[in-house]
Amino acid sequence: MHPAPPPVIRFDNLTLGYERHPAVHHLSGEIPAGALVAVIGPNGAGKSTLLKGVAGELRPIGGRIERAALPRGGVAYMPQRSEIDPGFPVSVFDVVAMGLWRELGAFGGLDDSRRRRVREALAAVGMEGFESRPVGSLSGGQLQRARFARLILQDAPLILLDEPFAAIDSRTVDDLVRLMLGWHAEGRTILTVVHDFEQVRRHFPTCLLLAREPVAFGPTPQVLTDTLLAHARRLSEAFDDDAPECHRAEESGGHGPGGEVVPLHDHGHPHDHAGHRH
């Protein structure tokens, strides 16, 4: 019997936040290689913050994020809002070609084979013929397709998607979900922030439920329950954005990502009225 591969991501009592105010706190556990995880929770639950931390764009306030050594491509991170200024005079081809930046370096040029790969990535998302279009002329769905084409070129083993299916047409959603599921079938590890619970139930085998702190992680049918969702809403509503950074001893027991559902209330750590656990 072969030993299980090491996790791609390990959280060790992780706290992430802004100006010392925690947005995600006391998260511990592991994301195994090849996992397809929906990160869910109420508005303001820390979902986007968690992805920024995993991507390396936000340093922990406390604890650690450990990532396994990844092969070429590393991490591909697609933020919730496009970082592309629609008024900037750049073509769809050039935006997608940015996916080759690791391969090319700061000043590398595009040879014929790389130009062909850019065109193939655009074809894979249904954007043939859009190469010379200004990116500012695209619809929301077309822009999201172009951003997925850029991800194809990044060829990363770890993919982080922040609300990739929000506010776009259903046909585009279906096409992009198929692309994501194809990446998962290739063995890539994918964390995706999703608000549509029906999409979660249909496509994601595993969920991480956040409410500034981890509520549960495990198989989607066992996490996506009325009881746990209601508990997450109560935790989020009780949280005080102006409270100082909290300090809590590391808890015993495996709360956070792991192999099974972990309900994360009733740890014997009372809430104070500011909404932090100490």
UniProtKB/TrEMBL annotation:
Coiled coil: none annotated. SMART domains: AAA (SM00382). Residues 244-253, 263-278 have a biased composition (Basic and acidic residues). Residues 9-237 form the ABC transporter domain. PROSITE patterns: ABC_TRANSPORTER_1 (PS00211), ABC_TRANSPORTER_2 (PS50893). It holds the Pfam family ABC_tran. It comes from the Bacteria. InterPro entries: AAA+_ATPase, ABC_transporter-like_ATP-bd, ABC_transporter-like_CS, Metal_Ion_Import_ABC, P-loop_NTPase. Residues 240-278 are annotated as: Disordered. Keywords: ATP-binding, Cell membrane, Membrane, Nucleotide-binding, Transport. The keyword Lyase does not apply. Gene3D superfamilies: P-loop containing nucleotide triphosphate hydrolases (3.40.50.300). One of its GO terms (molecular function) is ATP binding. Belongs to the ABC transporter superfamily. This is Metal ABC transporter ATP-binding protein. It comes from Thauera sinica.
